[in-house]
Specification:
- The structure holds two protein chains of two kinds.
- Chain A is mainly beta.
- In chain A, 0% of the residues lie in helices and 50% in strands.
- By secondary structure, chain B is mostly beta strands.
- Chain B is 0% helix and 52% strand.
- In chain B, a hairpin with a 5-residue loop joins strand 7 (56-58) and strand 8.
- Classes of the chains: A mainly beta, B mainly beta.
């Protein structure tokens, strides 16, 4: 069964450093998403991506964040200068349609020291 | 923006007993509703979804949920729980006009032997 994969599973970084979180969505999906879950809190939407551009983003997704689909399979989230409060689990998801079920990856746990 | 409320943060229940996990959302003209389960150290797995049609939807692992438009609720039920159902359960809502999912804060279900 096809699934969304994410690498790395755990990333530790120093405050102010850049990180890139990687995702491989399900191959025939057209919509891609990033969510984050701060420990003990709910899953929060960051951004959605369709047709090589951002279709929707939340207020969390400020200028420090960017997304890219560098090739036909990968979907990346870059945080330019990490802050302590960026520590969270980051989930990638993909879907066939804009409103249909989203398939989630296992997540990347980002720890900013 | 949509608001999703899961009133019970923790639900302990004995094995083979029935369980109901509650979810309410803020009113909207049309919504699509989902329940996801998160097992420890894993990603989000879709349990079931309501897109249209019958208000009673059945999902995996014996779970079902009922969409109640007048009460803006989508409660999750299982008639007899197993130890393996111990997990975090998230209710999610998608509006027809957008593609981001709004998540509730989650309900931690603990099945007691």
């Amino acid at each position: 069964e096809p699934e969304v994969t994410q690498t790395p599973s755990h990333q530790v970084t120093q405050m102010g450093q850049e990180v890139i979180l990687r995702c491989v969505p399900i191959s025939n999906h057209l919509y891609f998403y990033w969510y984050r879950q701060i420990l003990g809190q709910k899953v929060e939407f960051l951004v959605s991506f369709y047709n090589n551009e951002i279709s929707e983003k939340s207020e969390i997704f400020d200028d420090q964040f960017s997304v890219e689909r560098p090739d036909g399979s990968n979907f990346t989230l870059k945080i330019r200068s990490t802050k302590l409060e960026d520590s969270a689990m980051y989930f990638c998801a993909s879907s066939t349609l804009a409103w249909s079920e989203q398939f989630f990856g296992p997540g990347t746990r980002l720890t900013v020291l | 923006a949509q608001s999703v409320t899961q009133l019970d943060s923790q639900v302990p229940v004995f094995e083979e007993a029935p369980v109901e996990l509650r979810c309410n959302y803020s009113s909207s003209v049309s919504v699509y509703l989902f329940w996801y389960v998160q097992y420890p150290n894993q990603g989000l797995q879709l349990l079931l979804k309501y897109l249209s049609g019958s208000t009673l939807v059945k999902g995996i692992n014996g779970f079902e949920a009922e969409f109640n438009k007048s009460q803006t609720s989508f409660h999750l039920r299982k008639p007899s729980v197993h130890i393996s159902d111990t997990a975090e359960y998230f209710c999610a809502v998608s509006e027809g006009t957008g593609n981001q999912f709004y998540f509730g804060t989650g309900t931690s279900l603990t099945v007691i032997p």
